[in-house]
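retry 2 of 3: previous attempt timed out while embedding WT7. Reduced batch size to 1 and resubmitted. Inputs unchanged:
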Amino acid sequence: MAVERESVDTSEAEIAVHWGEENYVYPSAEFIAQANMTDPSVFDRFSLENFPNCFKEYADLLSWYEYWQTTLDTSDAPCWKWFVGGKINASYNCIDRHLAKNRNKTAIHFAPEPVGEKYEHITYQELYVRVNEFAALLRDFAGLKKGDRVTLHMPMVPELPITMLACARLGVIHSQVFGGFSGKACADRIVDSQSRVLITMDAYWRSGHLIDHKHGADIACDLAGKDGQKVDKVLIWQRYPGKASSPTAMVKGRDYFVNEELNKYYGARIEPERMSAEAPLFLMYTSGTTGKPKGCQHSTGGYLAYVTGTSKYVQDIHPEDVYWCMADIGWITGHSYIVYGPLALCASTVIFEGVPTFPDAGRAWKIAQDLNVNIFHTAPTTIRALRKIGPDEPAKYKFKFKHMTTVGEPIEPEVWRWYHEVVGKGTAAIVDTWWQTETGGFLCSTLPAIKPMKAGSTGPGVPGIHPIIFDENAKEIPRGAGKAGNICIQNPWPGAFQTIWGDRDRFVRTYYERYCKNPKSKDWRDWPYLTGDAAVEAPDGYYRILGRIDDVINVSGHRLGTKEIESAAMTVAEVAEAAVVPVKHDVKGIEPDLYIALKPGFKASEALEKKISDAVCSEIGKIAKPRRVWLVKDMPKTRSGKIMRRVLASISNKKDVGDVTTLANPEIVEDIRKMSK
Ligand code: WT7
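retry 2 succeeded.
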């Protein structure tokens, strides 16, 4: 940990917005009357005294082939094993078990981006057929079997959950890479997970453009190959079956169109694999404090139980609900709360291909009206964008949400109020859910019918999650003290990731070493989980999340490692040094600003700024695009030569830089400040 932390000189928490405690807002009687969880004693049932057996309640929401014997096995601490001895299949739980009563019900509503294209309503029966046929193809044509990893690089189309569920049916571990990530980012994940099959789509719509996505697959295979991981099959779904939508050529003997091959598997039915509860279900890569993304390994039984339980009680999903989470399935939010949770509960889940601001600011509300969506889930960055461009749009459409979620970053109270009053039409219950890729499901949130809402606060731990705030010296900050510190979780929970794929040491070092009471202990009480966020707890037990304590930037609700961005910039030959800092942005929340010192002999130019910015986009993806690239003469440095990112962050955020007289080169600070004026 010490080594990983060395370079940290600014944290998001330092520049996080600070606001006071807001007043309570209460859910309506109408909401409470229909809610899944209205019994406040749930918190006693899920108290630490009843841990870990309390989680039986979540496991019992699932159908098991063989019931488990041990709730929590701690013998390999801190790699916890849940529901040991149990046998289960996630695909069976999300599809097959619903067929008897609900085969004709819509499982997935697909909203294509082009307004002229019709919605697609996929019933549970159709989902069953399509998942089975594709599973047969994966097994018999691609040669995939239980335990193999397969990389997916897919856009927001129904073929994505179909692919995930087909993998789950076979016990194949899927690793979906966010469709907006570059071919290079995809290659890194192929190599790390040792995938020899890549599943992608030729093209998809975004903001009115049919984007050539197949191109990224070629880059990914090429770069993965150079890095020692050969991809021998690329399975390509066609956005329009039978029609070429991408100009990129097919590679003979490697690339296959799924819809052509699928014909051979017409009518195939595949018996779901009976997986151990602790068998990995999927990998989800996330940014950490070092350059290399971490493959968070999620389990089958524990994960599915946790996302099903939290979908039912925190999201208040009932089987008759039309639930729309406007996240991307390429992030953990989409895995847990578009695919696995809602489908395990037999709800109808909405998948939207495009952006909610295209062709106009009413798009999201039109979809909500058309599909009669009654539960809505999105991130503050999207709420800010929709509020900015169309503050009065929601009122023009006939939809009524009973429940809404926010996720991914803190939400400003003014933005929360717009969400509540204008989008929620003053009646929807809101939950602000705080969690992470690693945690599989929610950590903190109010229970919508039991606890009042408080703008800007995520709320208390959800049932069975017991947060604790430590100071720098591992001393517990007294509960409700209103003092900031490092928020940790005292106990394990079934949704937590099992390890970092292939790197257990890094897993222990990053998440457990800091506050571990005894590294030899097999007792979970000695292993608080370090979330990496700073937080304060108010006297009422509600937490406010202040931001990351490590050098990770949260852009539009997603973590980007500053080192990843910096190393991307360093691929440009002229660059000598790079430093990324977070800048406050109205809509995105935070944006990266990139400071660059050039090698001697190179001159600053706009062309060079663009070249560096483009390098970041092609290495990582557009999501990481810097707000500005500043070509500076030199970086502000300490006498020991460390770049002072905190000083740069102050300049970018137009804040006082403080005392810089102890720097090795204090004069440079004024130079840089003048540039940014
Ligand atoms: C980081 C996790 C959880 C799925 C999406 C992001 C920040 C997340 C909240 C919230 C304040 C939040 C934290 C966390 N965060 N939700 N409701 N309020 N901050 O997953 O990319 O793994 O990022 O996002 O800093 O550690 P992720």
